[in-house]
Design brief:
heterotrimer; A mainly alpha (293); B alpha/beta (290); C alpha/beta (288); A: 293 residues; mainly alpha; 2 domains; 2 strands; C: 288 residues; alpha/beta; Rossmann fold; four-stranded antiparallel sheet; 11 helices; 10 strands
């Protein structure tokens, strides 16, 4: 018995889901959480070392635990990415062979080569992606879209004095986020309505042009609906005297607390440690240690 | 209305043409004269295409006349310097609930209007409190806006308009997309607002809703076809039918009864009035004891 | 009721849960039973959130039964091998605000979408378009008009034609008159009645607008919080005192008036649907 209809798409994505568990992490100032997220991204990119990445991975897992998110649920969010990730990793391993001093070729078949370095590159890629996905999920689990938009706006507010449109940017973000569930619902409704008329949304048959044409019954109404909503929203905003960010006051104001600074300091420390391990080539030491025993 | 008191909204010789100067201009309004007094509750009815929405959008300067003038309090809507004053005096609620909610959290959407007006930050929470309490959504203050029912969303839209402290609220078929419960909640809110002195202009094609107003304005083809108190307007059944409109169902029922029961009132506007009319003329038969 | 009372749709013990085994799990149907015979108009009344839309989506296979069963002309939708495409031709589902789904530039092309998906040859597609547009009362030359130029009422009838062009046996509609002005509503209801009057067809109509249901339905189910709480002919169902208080449903004014009079002790029946029937009841009080 089929337990899932072909149409229930939205339930499985973890990025973008907000799960208010009321944990310590949830209550941090969103500006600080943004900065912490930024540090994580920088650390992940700058760490070319499995030990460093392992540290960051552990840190994210600890973060999930602190945020009281079920680890199983968060890790399940990686499933939809796996095919894509596997492909990328394979590309990394095969198509970008790493030569250079000390690279040992482990396997060879016609023009394909696998060296120890390319294996490492593949592993690093997988690790980085996993950390990023989990980290982004952690961020969205613990930060509502409202906090996100406000965090961005208030971080950038000082720049408004020199003409940077901080509020406009944040409003664009808020509106996009606010209408995302609405558009998703409309998409699902449209898919169902067109399927009820026998539509088949391009299950891989025919050329690119044909498959795109098959999406028209979905794309055209969505586009029209979005345009219509945009018109309606503009009217509503004008009726409430929206004239841009200048001269606006704010209901919400953020005040930093000691725990916010604590979170930032911890993130900084972890980032520095991870990059440090990377620079010290910690994995090489680990390899030696393992080899010697 | 005090004869010396200026109307809150004054419309004189209003003509409006969409796409003027293109190949297919559409004359949506063709000469409207209307005065709305402070504290009045006016219902605007008319078939689709009669010009209801266009008329309403002239009341808060979203549209400006092609010919003629619209005054809100002391300001002419053509005056581009006074747009803020006009739009904070006349608030507007639109038909589609989702398309007028800007923020993700209820209280932030209510604050959007006053924030735009630069209301001082220590006054903002009070405005939000008051607006939410007036529409009965105080408990949902921190709720995500997309989780509200359609009726609640429209009440949120009303609160968001109220937060700017307008003197008048204009509603463009605000109940059209609501279920009966949502509609009842919104109508209830409107009654309460009117009782507290708010001026209301409510466009609808539910005749039973128009029946609760003080004055009904019937639009057809961009002009005012009929005007008067609900009882006066709904007495003109044939004229309304000719405009593809109807009278409230309780009124139809009363008329039907009056065909066979002499002196039965035909100007009944609601189920309650109908029931009262019956109970005033016929007493409940005594129980027959065997 | 027509002589052929074949059972077109049967639903037994249907349950449905959204997003099972996730933190957002919600059960929407708790064991629903329903039957639709040829020649019938069946109404499903329920407030928003009662599960009406979920139930309707089971009737043409968009949702498959998780527990319980749905049979369309004897074919069980619980069977993974069931030919869902043929079910979607036999049961035409019209969503709320169907004019939102129009996408073709020219009106006639949009009506032709369904028949083309069925793989019909062009001559037959044209014939289906012609019949469908006639059934909804749109002049045939509208097929060459730009879709966006039509009024809302016309576009809604066009969308309905798009489903009728599939030549279904059962037409299922979700809030068909939502947002229409009184004239548009009359035209739509008239078209539905006329379509149903042909042999072997049935209509299922889900709405919280009880006036619509009063006008069209022979039989009514009342769905509240995912359960059927009442069923029967509309006059009987509407007369139930429980329905008077629930604001989630708007009882038609004549029924409301008589229920209120009954409550006050007057010897009237609340089993009325139309203004005439209600007036007759009230007149009887005066002539007693």
């Amino acid at each position: 018995m089929p337990e899932r209809s072909e149409f229930e798409l939205l339930g499985r994505m973890t990025i973008g889901q907000y799960l208010p568990t009321g944990s310590w992490l949830h209550r941090l100032d969103p500006r600080f959480k943004l900065l912490m997220g930024l540090l994580l991204i920088i650390a992940v990119v700058a760490t070319a070392d499995l030990c460093g990445l392992a540290l960051l991975f552990l840190a994210v897992l600890v973060g999930l635990v602190v945020a009281r998110i079920s680890l199983r649920f968060a890790l399940a969010g990686l499933y939809p990415m796996l095919p894509f990730l596997a492909l990328l990793a394979l590309l990394q391993v095969f198509a970008i062979p790493q030569y250079g001093a000390g690279a040992t070729v482990l396997w060879r078949w016609t023009i394909l080569r696998v060296t120890d370095r390319s294996l490492l590159a593949g592993a690093l890629l997988l690790a980085r992606f996993a950390i990023m996905v989990l980290g982004l999920s952690l961020f969205s689990f613990s930060t509502s879209t409202t906090e996100l938009a406000h965090g961005i706006e208030h971080l950038l507010l000082p720049l408004q004095g020199v003409g940077f449109p901080a509020h406009e940017l944040s409003l664009v973000l808020t509106i996009a986020l606010r209408f995302l569930p609405i558009l998703a619902e409309e998409t699902e409704r449209l898919m169902k309505a067109q399927a009820s008329r026998g539509a088949d949304f391009g299950r891989g048959r025919g050329g690119l042009i044909q498959r795109t044409r098959r999406l028209l019954p979905l794309l055209v109404p969505l586009f029209l609906a979005s345009l219509r909503r945009a018109d309606e929203l503009v009217e509503a905003m004008e009726a409430r005297c929206y004239l841009g960010g200048k001269g606006r006051t704010h209901l919400l104001r953020f005040r930093a607390h000691p725990s916010d600074y604590l979170g930032l300091v911890v993130s900084l420390a972890l980032a520095v440690l991870a990059i440090g391990l990377s620079m010290a080539r910690a994995q090489a030491w680990l390899w030696h240690w393992v080899g010697a025993h | 209305m005090n004869a010396n008191e200026e109307p809150l909204i004054r419309i004189a010789g209003l003509h409006y043409v969409y796409q003027a100067g293109t190949r297919e201009p559409v004359a949506a309004l063709r000469g409207i004269d209307l005065a709305i007094a402070a504290g009045e509750y006016v219902a605007v009815v008319g078939a689709n295409g009669s010009g209801k929405s266009t008329l309403l959008r002239h009341c808060n300067a979203l549209l400006r006349p092609t010919r003629g003038d619209v005054w809100v309090a002391d300001w002419n809507t053509r005056d581009l310097q006074r747009v803020r004053e006009i739009r904070s005096t006349v608030g507007m609620v639109f038909q589609v609930p989702d398309s007028q909610i800007v923020a993700t959290i209820v209280e932030e959407d209510v604050a959007f209007g006053p924030e735009n007006l630069g209301v001082p930050e220590d006054e903002l929470p009070q405005r939000v409190d008051w607006a939410l309490a007036t529409v009965g959504l105080s408990k949902l203050r921190y709720r995500a806006s997309h989780l509200l029912s359609t009726g609640q969303k429209q009440r949120l839209a009303i609160a968001s308009a109220l937060a700017m402290r307008p003197r008048c609220l204009v509603l463009d078929e605000a109940t059209a997309m609501l279920d009966p419960l949502g509609r009842a909640q919104v109508l209830d809110t409107l009654r309460r607002l009117h009782a507290e002195g708010m001026t209301l202009v409510h466009a609808t094609h539910h005749m039973s809703e128009a029946a609760q107003a003080q004055r009904v304005v019937v639009l057809a083809g961009g002009q005012i076809a009929l005007q008067g108190s609900p009882r006066q307007v709904f007495a003109q059944e044939e004229a309304l039918r000719a405009l593809a409109l109807d009278v409230p169902v309780p009124t139809q029922l009363a008329r039907q009864v009056a065909l066979h029961v002499p002196a039965f009132p035909t100007d009944v506007l609601s189920v309650d009035e109908l029931v009262q009319a019956v109970s005033a003329r016929v007493s409940v038969p005594a129980q027959v004891t065997p | 009721m027509s002589a052929s009372t074949d059972l077109l749709i049967e639903v037994r013990g249907l349950q449905h849960t959204y997003l099972p085994r996730t933190p957002l799990e919600t059960q929407s149907l708790f064991g629903v039973d329903l039957r639709v015979h040829a020649g019938e108009s069946v109404g499903i009344i329920g407030p928003t959130g009662s599960g009406k839309s979920t139930l309707l989506q089971h009737l043409n296979g968009l949702l498959r039964p998780q527990q319980g069963g749905v049979w369309v002309e004897g074919v069980s939708l619980a069977d993974p091998q069931a030919d869902v495409r043929s079910v979607r031709q036999k049961v035409g589902l019209v969503f709320q605000n169907p004019e939102d789904q129009l996408f073709e530039r020219y009106a006639g092309d949009d009506v032709a979408f369904g028949p083309r998906n069925l793989g019909l040859p062009p001559a037959q597609v044209r014939e289906r378009v012609r019949q469908a547009m006639q059934a909804v009362g749109l002049p045939l030359d509208f097929k060459d008009r730009l879709t966006l130029e039509l009024s809302q009422g016309q576009r809604r009838r066009l969308a309905l034609a798009g489903v009728l062009a599939l030549a279904p046996r059962v037409l299922v509609l979700d809030e068909p008159t939502a947002g229409l002005d009184p004239q548009g509503r009359q035209e739509l209801l008239h078209a539905l009645c006329a379509w149903r009057s042909h042999d072997g067809r049935a209509i299922v109509l889900a709405s919280h607008n009880m006036e619509d249901v009063a006008e069209l339905a022979d039989r009514v189910y009342v769905l509240v919080a995912g359960r059927i709480v009442l069923s029967g002919p509309p006059r009987q169902v509407f007369a139930q005192p429980e329905l008077l208080g629930s604001d989630g449903l708007g009882l038609p004014a004549p029924t409301q008036a008589l229920q209120e009079l009954r409550r006050l002790g007057y010897p009237v029946s609340a089993e009325v649907l139309t203004v005439q029937e209600a007036a007759a009841q009230i007149e009887a009080l005066f002539h007693a």
